[in-house]
Design goal:
The complex is a heterodimer of chains A (303) and B (303). Chain A is an all-alpha fold and 303 residues long. Chain A has 15 helices and no strands. Chain B starts with a helix and ends with a helix. Classes of the chains: A mainly alpha (303), B mainly alpha (303). At the A-B interface, helix 1, helix 2, helix 5, helix 6 and helix 7 of A face helix 2, helix 4, helix 5, helix 6 and helix 7 of B.
């Protein structure tokens, strides 16, 4: 681990420590038993509101078809079964969907991260006439949501002969404005002495980018990469439009068609299918939650 | 000519090399934006003035006919109404419930970190998969909501097939899925309020309510403003939940501007009307983003 990332983590730890003592200070000293009970009730309510739907998905996937269609519904599967999972897996080419989602996410996020790391370096450290305006041009792209561009982009992609191909799904979303902005802000907080030292050592810009700036900015890059991966994995509208065969569908499109084709026949199978879609993201989230949340907060509360 | 000569005298070869490197690093990113973001904006404008089924070799210029036609249609007025209904309800619920949750999760309670993770997790999940889970939850006979309403002796409405209940249903799902984002931003804002301010109120003998009124609320106001704008933008763009849960129905009851744009473009193959919808959607988003940028320049200093 480089000393810089270590430093970043250390400062993060102290900051949480400080904030924790701050809250205990002004909440703790006067809170009554009633207040604490109400607070824990509120906490429980939050868990139920947000968690119950997820629980319903999981418990549905483990119920037998008879139990799913019993009135009133049961809370806990009385005879939990795994049978819905192989049924879901066989009712649509989920193996293929996984491969497609994996390819689209890997390359889609790969491009975004690459472009963000390199463009941000250029904007932070290189001279260029009218650089400010080029940066504004890039930021302007933030104002244009994908939804607005789908029709012309469909026509463009069709002209390139890319309908129903990986490049057709990936390339239109490969450029990145948000990540460039985020990383440029982060690069500018890096200690200038380190940059100068690299310069004195005779490192050119490319080497400075690869072996000095990138390792130092690792927390920010990882945050952005995770946000990008999750966004690509979940993307729905564009892959829905640009693919037209089963073989090219990504997971969100696959689960949508599974529901259209057999939604009301067996909810257990459909719930098992939705678990196939969300499980990889949930695992990533469990491991890397801190980076993801930091990335989101950094985008909003910039320095 | 003359300015070029002047520049070449002043610019050192080293700086010239930086220019080239800058172009190399930023160029591909900008080029992709030009093709897949800026060009579509112009092309949408053009399409909004033609009649075209996306197949015929010629596009017929009809001037403002598409605009005139749409604004005279009661159906289109309903779509605009739906867009604002969805947006305003989502924003209000997210802003208020998100604040309540954040205030709760900002206190030193046991297990609050786990609850924070749970509250944030739906943000990461595929909207398509989540929409499908909620169809099951809203099922009037076998669903979770019916089971919950059963406790207090009520029957579930037929959420997704009832014109009056379909919109509330998709709003509930949208808010459920996006509220974790607001909570994260609120928590970051709460952490940034200096605790001396709270101490000052305590010294003056103020209770919990006056701490909230005098310190928390004013301290959070820039965050609230930021969140209102970002949630307006995300609500305008919401597509996957509506597509999966209601497909815009019943009878257009949940057709928003984005959904209409998709339908006209890719189901009805009416490029002109889809063009008008794109132009309107972009106009709305552009106006809101301008407000957001003005605000960000001025008031986000505290991180």
């Amino acid at each position: 681990m480089t000393s810089a990332t270590h430093l970043v983590q250390e400062s993060k730890q102290t900051s949480t420590k400080v904030s924790k003592s701050a809250t205990t200070h002004w909440v703790g000293h006067q809170q009554s038993l009633v207040g604490r009970t109400a607070a824990y009730l509120g906490l429980t309510l939050c868990v139920l509101l947000i968690g119950l739907p997820v629980y319903w998905m999981i418990s549905g996937a483990f119920k037998t078809p008879q139990e799913i269609y019993s009135v009133p519904p049961t809370w806990i599967p009385s005879q939990p079964t795994l049978a819905s999972f192989p049924k879901a897996w066989n009712s649509a080419p989920f193996g293929r969907y996984y491969i497609n989602s994996f390819i689209v996410t890997l390359f889609g996020s790969g491009f975004e991260v690459f472009f963000a790391v390199t463009s941000a370096y250029a904007f932070a450290f290189l001279r260029f006439p009218g650089k400010r305006y080029v940066f504004l041009l890039l930021l302007a792209a933030l104002m244009v949501p994908v939804q607005v561009t789908i029709l012309p982009n469909y026509l463009t992609v069709a002209r390139f002969g890319w309908i129903n191909t990986y490049q057709g799904i990936i390339i239109p979303g490969a450029s990145v404005a948000y990540g460039t902005f985020l990383l440029r802000q982060y690069y500018r907080t890096l200690p200038t002495e380190i940059m100068d030292a690299a310069r004195v050592d005779g490192a050119g810009h490319v080497r400075t980018l690869v072996s000095v700036v990138t390792p130092l900015a690792k927390p920010a890059i990882v945050s952005f990469a995770l946000l990008s991966i999750v966004a690509k994995w979940n993307e729905f509208l564009w892959p829905l439009i640009v693919t037209n065969t089963k073989e090219m569908r990504v997971l969100p499109i696959g689960i949508y068609w599974l529901m259209v084709e057999e939604g009301t026949i067996d909810w257990g199978v459909v719930m098992a299918g939705t678990i196939f879609v969300v499980l990889p993201v949930l695992i990533v989230f469990l491991y890397a939650q801190r980076y993801i949340v930091d990335g989101i907060a950094a985008g909003a509360v910039k320095g | 000519m003359s300015t070029g000569a002047l520049q070449s005298k002043r610019v050192s070869p080293a700086e010239r090399r930086e220019w080239w490197l800058f172009l190399l690093l930023v160029g591909p990113n900008i080029l992709l934006f030009a093709i897949f973001t800026y060009w579509p904006l112009l092309y949408n404008g053009y399409l909004s003035f033609v009649r075209w089924d996306m197949l015929a070799p010629v596009k017929m210029w009809v001037g403002l006919d598409n605009y005139r036609f749409l604004f005279s249609q009661p159906e289109f007025q309903l779509i605009l109404f739906n867009t604002f209904y969805f947006t305003i309800a989502s924003v209000l619920l997210t802003i208020v419930l998100g604040l309540l949750m954040a205030l709760l999760l900002n206190q030193s309670l046991r297990g609050r970190n786990a609850v924070r993770s749970i509250v944030f997790s739906p943000v990461m999940l595929s909207g398509a998969a989540i929409g499908i889970v909620w169809i099951y939850i809203f099922d009037p006979r076998y669903g979770l909501i019916d089971a919950l309403l059963g406790f207090i002796g009520l029957n579930s409405p037929n959420w997704l097939l009832d014109g009056a209940w379909a919109m509330p249903a998709v709003i509930i799902v949208h808010v459920w899925k996006t509220i974790g984002y607001a909570v994260v931003i609120y928590l970051a804002g709460l952490q940034a309020i200096p605790r001396e301010l709270y101490e000052a109120v305590v010294v003056d003998g103020g209770g919990a309510w006056s701490r909230f009124r005098a310190v928390t609320l004013p301290g959070l106001s820039p965050v609230v403003f930021f969140l209102v704008l970002t949630t307006v933008l995300t609500s305008f763009q919401s597509f996957d939940i509506i597509k999966v849960m209601t497909n815009g129905g019943p009878v257009n009851a949940t057709t928003t501007l984005v959904f209409y744009l998709y339908e006209e473009g890719f189901v009805a193959f009416n490029a002109g009307r889809a063009g008008v919808a794109s132009v309107l959607l972009f106009g709305l988003m552009f106006a809101f983003t301008l407000v957001q940028m003005r605000y960000e320049d001025r008031s986000v200093h505290y991180a």
